[in-house]
Design brief:
alpha+beta, four-stranded antiparallel sheet, 7 strands, 34% helix
Length: 172
């Protein structure tokens, strides 16, 4: 008598059901990877901005440009300063913070720089928000309680460092 080898239909159905259960429980973890990547990018840019600001402040100290306003040359371009640190509004120099961080094409400065107060749909005066291209930056209220996916950079007050806040709880 010949013996047949293989799986029965019941065994195959049980395996398929088990794989389906595993897929349903594991899929949400894998689907959220893009949001996590955007949040990690925001955090990395925040760290880069803090690092660059330290270097710029060192150059400003050497050049004697730590007053309320000033400029310093970095990589052949002039950057506006507020109290020795990068100014949020780079109107005098024609460059912007994204040029310095080499992020053009990936991030966009807020279109409503310093025109409002926190909570008004635009950053407060002396602030700029850096958002991913494709995000509607005017939909955020830029307050500490609002979810968002951006970096809020606020000019340095006299004797203090700039405020750099990363919001990653709204990255999607």
């Amino acid at each position: 008598m010949q013996q047949q080898k293989g799986f029965t239909l019941i065994e195959l159905i049980i395996v398929i059901v088990i794989l389906g259960i595993l897929a349903v429980t594991a899929a949400p973890k894998f689907l959220d990877i893009q949001n996590d990547a955007k949040g990690a990018t925001i955090s990395a840019v925040e760290a880069s901005l803090k690092s660059v600001n330290s270097i710029v402040y060192g150059k400003a100290l050497i050049a004697g440009e730590t007053a309320a306003t000033g400029t310093v040359a970095v990589n052949g371009s002039d950057y506006d300063l507020v109290n020795g640190y990068l100014a949020a509004d780079q109107t005098t120099s024609g460059s912007d913070i994204l040029d310095l961080l080499e992020l053009d094409g990936e991030f966009a400065p807020s279109s409503t720089l310093g025109t409002g107060s926190a909570g008004s749909g635009s950053p407060a005066a002396g602030s700029i928000a850096l958002t991913f291209y494709g995000f509607d930056d005017t939909s955020y209220d830029y307050s500490s309680s609002d979810a968002g996916c951006f970096i809020l950079y606020t000019d340095a007050a006299s004797g203090a460092t700039p405020t750099i806040t990363a919001k990653t709880d709204g990255c999607n």
